């Protein structure tokens, strides 16, 4: 979902990716969570996402990318270096990276992305660095975009909190990116086992 303020002078934009829908009619979300951590889903959306993002960057709008769970993984596929710059210069392939899109839209072959216009926030999202056994390019595992990954953890000695964020390996983010653990004192073990939801504001207010 792409959002913008009603005030036309406000240059802020939000690109929000929804989390997993655990429904019998949507098992592909669950499959994406535990196999390629959303890579296949992002490949389907890549053209539309990159075109929209490039339009914002050429215009000079500030974009916040937000996602929970699988949505947070899609955020990482959006901001990883392979998608942010041209890694295939010199060949005849159609280049669809965000950078190539900005150059096409601006008409400037030397256009460079201003990473300060981009920021991301994820909640209980898996990382993407170990996708397909680590066979993805190293550049898929890095980024120039800085943000925060928020995860829920429980009070010891009982292991509680969200476990989904442990899938996929370390999270992607530029230098200065933070992995913020919110330590929640769960009322019961059962409550702690279902801490993946984003619907409890007290989780994210916890230190």
Strand percentage: 15-25%
Radius of gyration: 18 Å
Largest sheet: 6 strands, mixed
User: Segments where pLDDT lies below 50 for 5+ residues?
Assistant: 23-33
- Strand-pairing-aware structural class: alpha/beta
Share of helix, binned = 25-40%
- Quote the distance from N terminus to C terminus: 29 Å
Order of helices and strands: EEHHEHHHEEEHH
The total count of strands amounts to 6
Shape: globular
Biggest sheet: strand arrangement: 1-2-3-4-5-6
Would you tell me the overall average pLDDT?
Answer: 83
What does this protein look like?
This protein is α/β, with parallel strands linked by helices and 207 residues long. The chain has seven helices and six strands; from the N terminus they run ββααβαααβββαα. It has helices spanning 27-34, 39-59, 70-79, 81-84, 98-106, 189-192, 201-205, and strands spanning 2-3, 12-17, 62-68, 118-123, 147-154, 178-184. It has a six-stranded mixed beta sheet. Strand 1 and strand 2 form a beta hairpin. Helix 2 packs across helix 3 and helix 2 (39-59) packs parallel to helix 5 (98-106). The longest helix is centred in the N-terminal third of the chain and has 21 residues, at 39-59. The chain is globular. The model is unreliable at 23-33 (pLDDT under 50).
């Amino acid at each position: 979902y792409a959002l913008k303020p009603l005030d036309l002078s406000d240059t802020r934009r939000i690109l929000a990716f929804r989390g997993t829908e655990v429904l019998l009619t949507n098992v592909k979300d669950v499959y994406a969570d535990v196999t390629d951590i959303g890579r296949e889903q992002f490949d389907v959306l890549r053209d539309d996402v990159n075109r929209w993002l490039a339009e914002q960057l050429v215009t000079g709008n500030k974009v916040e990318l937000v996602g929970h769970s699988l949505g947070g993984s899609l955020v990482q596929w959006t901001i990883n270096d392979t998608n942010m710059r041209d890694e295939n210069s010199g060949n005849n392939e159609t280049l669809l990276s965000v950078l190539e899109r900005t150059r096409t839209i601006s008409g400037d072959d030397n256009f460079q992305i201003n990473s300060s216009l981009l920021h991301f926030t994820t909640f209980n999202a898996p990382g993407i660095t170990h996708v397909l056994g680590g066979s993805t390019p190293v550049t898929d595992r890095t980024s120039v975009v800085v943000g925060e990954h928020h995860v829920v953890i429980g009070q010891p000695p009982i292991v509680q909190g969200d476990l989904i964020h442990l899938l996929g390996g370390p999270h992607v983010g530029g230098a200065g990116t933070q992995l913020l653990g919110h330590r929640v004192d769960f009322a019961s073990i059962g409550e702690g086992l279902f801490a993946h939801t984003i619907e409890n504001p007290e989780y994210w207010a916890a230190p």
